[in-house]
Automatic annotation (TrEMBL):
PROSITE patterns named among the record's database cross-references: AA_TRNA_LIGASE_II
Catalytic activity: tRNA(Pro) + L-proline + ATP = L-prolyl-tRNA(Pro) + AMP + diphosphate
InterPro entries in alphabetical order: aa-tRNA-synt_IIb, aa-tRNA-synth_II, aa-tRNA-synth_II/BPL/LPL, Anticodon-bd, Anticodon-bd_dom_sf, Pro-tRNA-ligase_IIa, Pro-tRNA-synth_IIa_bac-type, Pro-tRNA-Synthase_IIa_type1
Organism: Thermotomaculum hydrothermale
Location of the Aminoacyl-transfer RNA synthetases class-II family profile domain: 38-466
Family: Belongs to the class-II aminoacyl-tRNA synthetase family. ProS type 1 subfamily.
Subcellular localization, as worded in the UniProt entry: Cytoplasm
Record PANTHER family: MITOCHONDRIAL RIBOSOME PROTEIN L39/PROLYL-TRNA LIGASE FAMILY MEMBER, PROLINE--TRNA LIGASE
Function: Catalyzes the attachment of proline to tRNA(Pro) in a two-step reaction: proline is first activated by ATP to form Pro-AMP and then transferred to the acceptor end of tRNA(Pro). As ProRS can inadvertently accommodate and process non-cognate amino acids such as alanine and cysteine, to avoid such errors it has two additional distinct editing activities against alanine. One activity is designated as 'pretransfer' editing and involves the tRNA(Pro)-independent hydrolysis of activated Ala-AMP.
GO-annotated biological processes: prolyl-tRNA aminoacylation
Domain notes: Consists of three domains: the N-terminal catalytic domain, the editing domain and the C-terminal anticodon-binding domain.
Protein name as it appears in the record: Proline--tRNA ligase
Amino acid sequence: MRFSRYFLYTLKENPKEAETVSHRLMLRACMIKKLASGIYSYLPLGYRVIKKIENIIREELDKEGCIELLMPAVQPAELWQESGRWDYYGKELLRFKDRKNGDFCLGPTHEEVITDIVRKELRSYKQLPLNLYQIQSKFRDEIRPRYGLMRGREFIMKDAYSFDVDDESCDKSYWQMYDAYTRIFKRCGLKFRAVEADSGAIGGNYTHEFHVLAETGEDTVLSCNNCSYTANIEKAECLKPEKVNDNIEMKPLEKVETPNKKSVEEVSEFLGVKPSDLVKTMIFKLEDGSAIAVLVRGDYEVNEVKVKNHLGVAILELADEETIENVTGGPSGFSGPIGLKIPVYADYSVLNMNNFVVGANEKDMHFINVNLGRDFEVKEFADLRLAVEGETCPRCKKGTYEQFKGIEVGQVFKLGTKYSKAMNCTFLDENGKERYAVMGCYGIGVGRTAAAAIEQNHDENGIIWPVNIAPFQVILLNLEVKDKEFTEKIDKLYQNLLEEGFEVLYDDRDVRPGFKFKDADLIGIPVQIIAGKKTMAEGLLELKVRRTGERIKVKPEELIEKTREILENLRIEEENR
């Protein structure tokens, strides 16, 4: 492809709206163009990367016997009402009516549609296992779309759905997809971790997320430094302590004034105690309008996902000021468990605390010397807090958590019979008994994978594409375009590279060499072949490896072999890092 004929117009300056590296560089490299908030066009250079990622996905899923199809983006409300998600999913589901006043939505995911397709054809256990996938645009009406392709409203996603006869078979499908994902992201040249996670709005009872490791990642990942346990911060487990009967003397309960002191830091400093000597009381509202209290040690944070999962509720939200006053009798910032008439749950971190500090449910007042049992009762103890770096791993009980930042690019779910039961997707087993199909679902954000690759692979000059997903393998820079005889030689070199099977972007523009060098670094093609009069007079060409900056001079007859060697070495290194 000749640069002069390609739709590629780079920017020198960073766009003002771009907040992350990938967003900035994709705009500057003319890979994407904003159409509306969170909605982007994929321009030719960017779309080549997307197609590379899609092809890797197809190859690896096809190896596992997955079958590709394509489902509609527009979905009828009836299917979502049947599954129970029409009201549950929230405002991210873009709903609209057609001319006949029928309710529809733009699909953010396709569990309902695929279940409807399969239930109409599934009769016998002999038709299973089955795994169907598509690569298609999705739409989720994010309240704050940002970071370009990292958090858009419209995005390209690979979603796959497995159907099995029982849990054991579903487990096999799950781990086959897990292994396929591992191969996919390795082939994309990414450093990543597979982590245990919460299933969120998709549902199901077991899931892993695949995170590309990058300092700019939105998600926090905790990993044991001794065993293989890795989880995102919403899911990471905390070690349950043993109950200690230390017979510590319970001091007399005392109410003290704490004028204008609300936060843990303010109260602990005012009272001359450590934050770990306080217990925070968080009031939450449930979907039925009732309220609960959750207690956690002052130096920790409540994990709302864990609370929600522990209670088995669909909706959980922090209580508003009015609810807090109605429940506790006092303003927010001074809530405490003593005297509450609502259920009180406590994190394990509170289990062994004695003579601690809590809010007094009264403005500017706290209780000191508070003790469990004597002063209040807890309905249930559980793991209800966010895990933190440095604490003991709950699995091996030897290692400690290390913290990483990650960008989620894929997720695998074990759904069980959540959708097959709701939508009556059944089959007859070998004994003629009707049973529900056991399902799994598996997603990869294709555009997000491209953006994450940039977040992980860039320098101050631009993108550094991994070989397997680079838009082109080679960029050929003609530094003497105005010299007709010289250009004829480089044109022949370009044709030779194409005939040898290389994907080449030929920079034949009549611009200064400096512009060509900057653009070549910006768009990040793995190998640059630099053709200038000086080196050509010496009977040589210069190769530059974008990832390392290494420059190599080679004879024209050695160019093909050396370029292949560089690309292959880069590919092996990227797939194994």
